[in-house]
Amino acid sequence: MRLANWRFQQSTGVIDEAMSFKNKVWDWLTNTGMWETVLFSALRILLILILTRFAIKLLFSVIDRSLERQEKGRMQVNPRRFITVGELLKNVVSFAGNFVMVMLILGELGVQLAPLIAGAGVLGLAIGFGAQNLVKDVITGFFIILEDQFAVGDVVQIGTLKGTVEMIGLRSTRLVSWTGEVHIVPNGSITNVTNYSIGTALAVVDLPFSNSRKLEDTIELLKKAMLELKDSSSLANRVPTVLGVQSLTASEYVIRIAADCPPGVRADLEREIQMYAKEALEEEEALRLTAEAEKTAE
């Protein structure tokens, strides 16, 4: 009898628990306020997702248009630089947008954001202190590329280093000097840059002559030599100008010659000016010796 009563009580308890669970489920399913809250939260989360995707795509479009305008600028060399920067900017935008989206969604789900934001702030501060130079290099590299301060192939001087730009990275710039040395310059240390490849260059040559030589004859000789140079050379934009006496001493005077030329060929043009001047002087000397020999023979 006791066994039967115990079994009856056990079965009754199970039935009561089942009924209680059923009632709880029913109350949960029929809780209109709860379902309204869930529905509105789901709609807000969906709206956050849509707006985040739209904002990211809009910023991607702005980045593409900005880089396209930069690429059509002064130098169209190495377009992969613009592709690299564009992709990196898009990654930054995507990461920031998705981070904000996740934070907003967690807030909708009732997660306390203050501890998460505080932890992220402390982590970011620690990383920032540990990588200040790296961040400075990368930011400077962005501005060098986007502002087109110099491009691959330009001849530049950075501080005391002068050479041709071989590579522009986000962290460093590589220069090759005319004697072959390779200089790696961190972008963060680039403060003053002289670019010799922008605009029109000016080739300047100073030629010394003895005071025993007549000034008018020298200037006339050099003018003829510069006309010959312009006819046979493509380096000068126009006929080099014989400016006249640049300096004067007791034994000699110096004639200055200047010529406009494209960027990057100034040194070559200066060598050609000196070569044509020397050839003209040698030709004049040969004619003088020939004339003296003929006069002596007579």
From TrEMBL:
Origin: domain of life: Bacteria
Gene3D superfamilies found in the cross-reference section: 1.10.287.1260, 2.30.30.60, 3.30.70.100
Mechanosensitive ion channel transmembrane helices 2/3 domain segment(s): 92-132
Lipid bilayer topology: Multi-pass membrane protein
Keywords: Cell membrane, Membrane, Transmembrane, Transmembrane helix
Annotated GO CC locations: plasma membrane
Residue intervals passing through the bilayer: 38-60, 81-107, 113-135
Gene Ontology MF annotations: mechanosensitive monoatomic ion channel activity
Domain Mechanosensitive ion channel MscS, residue spans: 133-197
Protein's cellular compartments: Cell membrane
Pfam families cross-referenced by the UniProt entry: MS_channel_1st, MS_channel_2nd
Entry-linked PANTHER family: MODERATE CONDUCTANCE MECHANOSENSITIVE CHANNEL YBIO
Similarity-based family: Belongs to the MscS (TC 1.A.23) family.
Function description: May play a role in resistance to osmotic downshock.
Record's protein name: Mechanosensitive ion channel protein MscS
